[in-house]
Amino acid sequence: MTVAIEMGHTTAGGSATLDLEELLATRLLVQGNSGSGKSHLLRRLLEQSAPWVQQTIVDPEGDFVTLAERFGHLVIDAEDHTERGLQVAGERARSHRVSTVLNLEGLDAENQMRRAAAFLGGLFEVTRDHWYPMIVVVDEAQIFAPAVAGEVSDEARKLSLGAMTNLMCRGRKRGLAGVIATQRLAKLAKNVAAEASNFLMGRTFLDIDMARAADLLGMERRQADAFRDLERGQFMALGPALSRRPVGLRIGPTETEPRNAPPRLMPLPGATLEDARAIILAAPPPENIRPQRRPAPDLLGQLMAAKSAELEMRPEAEEQPVSAEELAERRERLDRILCAILAEPDAGFRALGVLYQEFVVRCRIEGLGSSVPDLGEFRRMLTHARAGLATDIAQDDTWQDVSVRAAILPDDMQGVFMMIARAAKQGWPCPSDAAIARAYGTHSFRRARRLLTYIEEQGLIVCQLDGAGRRIVTLVELAWATAPGDPNAEEPTAESGHGSPTP
After folding, report:
1. Where is the Helicase HerA central domain (predicted)?
2. By the 8 A CB rule, do 137 and 179 touch?
3. Mind listing the pLDDT tens digit for each residue in 104-156?
4. How many angstroms separate the CA atoms of 128 and 137, rounded?
């Protein structure tokens, strides 16, 4: 069944329709400067399609919460929920087919990115039985998939960009149809924008934006100036769900209004100058002085500062050469400390900074304070330890070659690759999904399988299944191959079973 929803009228006076089923398969990108009518267009699309398909809106400004009263959307105020709670909410909304508005108003940019990523992750990770058709509208998409790093942390940007990439690149097979709106294409990550096949381009003024919009619509460069002359609510449309040729259209009226209406001119109050002076320059009310809460002391910083001061006060002495035996003993003690940390049940799921802080404290307790590795060296040691490689093994020439190959992967994936390489070199069974997930720091076995797929796409490994459904991984060029291993094993295989991560 074909469902054509009416978006408004074309410039020629005909009806402008959008094929909803085609939209679910091909996704939509909307661009226009602030005030060009992007939010009005999205509201029209949501209102017209609400009876036909489940919807969710990632709303950074709280503009779409008014859909709740008229169309029954569930408004989720993100600032009232944790990231984990929003992920579960996304899974449940998808499973029960409830249309939602994720209201991110009141949060700073970093928390908006983190909570949106968690909610989108819940929509994406739901089981196959609940892959119902769903429109996912992301307003101001440049916030959640920025083309360049901004003031937010790299972790938040990575989480948000990954969620948006999953939505636009892999969401179609899961029934998710991404509809993203942005002020400028230049602000939006290219791998997110490139997956859309339908385009609605509104008013824009910069030459580079007009030229790029013209290229996307297949128009000649000399026609690009037309985007500067578009009125509010006018767009140029192209795509299999809209039109096979570029066509101008004007978006029709909506049944609901945004909560944040645009400002309108109104006359100034008729107060006299003396009244204004008395109101504005009156004495300020007394301040309520509240006791300031002391921040938690940075014990680690104090220890390191005290150590630095102690070293500065000491008279300079000639450095004594360190013997090979002392270096070997130091490496052994560092390995033992790291091994004890990783033996804790939740160590695989703790942040790098937390693990490093505990590592430094333990080193000081063991009397190794003057030779504690820095964060970069600790990251390398942690990667090798999670792969089951002691320091002496990791420094072997053969493993140096493996480390070079692993360097093309992100830092958090290198330990998984080296764990597989160790199993392949020794001829041990391939690590299970549980072992891979733990080494990667996640509870999701599905994410562990996607990780293997990603490493295979980089040309580092080849994954195969034998007749019994056991997994075999072969390292490209090195020709090392694991023995067949059950990917669904509940626990990582013990050292005798050739899969322990213990150094």
Report:
1. 6-79
2. yes
3. 998 889 999 999 999 999 999 888 888 999 999 999 999 999 988 777 888 88
4. 21
Rounded-to-integer distance, Cα 454 and Cα 457, Å? 5
Residue with token string 């001061």? 309
Among 62, 60, 44, smallest CA distance to 160 is for 60
Q: Are 252 and 44 in contact (CB under 8 A)?
A: yes
Output the CA angle 475-388-452, nearest 5 degrees.
40
Select from 470, 330, 347, 362 the least CA-distant residue to 415. 347
Nearest Cα neighbor of 69 from 45, 90, 50 is: 50
CATH topology of domain 4-251: Rossmann fold (3.40.50)
Residue of 64, 55, 53 whose CA lies nearest to 22? 53
User: Which DSSP category does 483 fall into?
Assistant: B
CA distance to 315, 408, 430, 461, 499, per residue, from 480 (Å): 54, 19, 12, 10, 16
All CATH 3.40.50.300 domain ranges of the chain, comma separated, are 4-251
Residues 6+ apart with CB under 8 A from 483: 423, 427, 428, 429, 430, 472, 498
Q: Is 213 exposed, middle or buried (0-12, 13-18, 19+ CB in 10 A)?
A: buried
Classified as helix, coil or strand, 53 is coil
Element (H, E) at 110: helix 109-125
Contact predicate 237/9, CB 8 Å? no
Q: In b/e form, how buried is each residue of 478-488, taking b as 16+ CB within 10 angstroms?
A: bebbbebbebe
The residue ranges of the chain whose pLDDT is under 70 are: 1, 260-263, 271, 288-322, 369-370, 390-398, 491-503
Q: Are 76 and 103 in contact (CB under 8 A)?
A: yes
Residue 374 sits at φ, ψ, to 5 deg, of -75, 180
pLDDT of residue 502: 39
pLDDT value of residue 227: 84
Return d(Cα 157, Cα 147) in angstroms, integer. 10
Q: How far is CA 116 from the centre of its chain?
A: 8
Tokens of 46: 């949501």
Tokens found for residue 355: 């693990």
pLDDT tens for each residue of 223-274: 777 888 888 889 989 899 998 888 989 999 999 988 766 667 778 777 677 7
In the chain, the amino acid numbered 120 is: L
Assigned token pair, 212: 């790029």
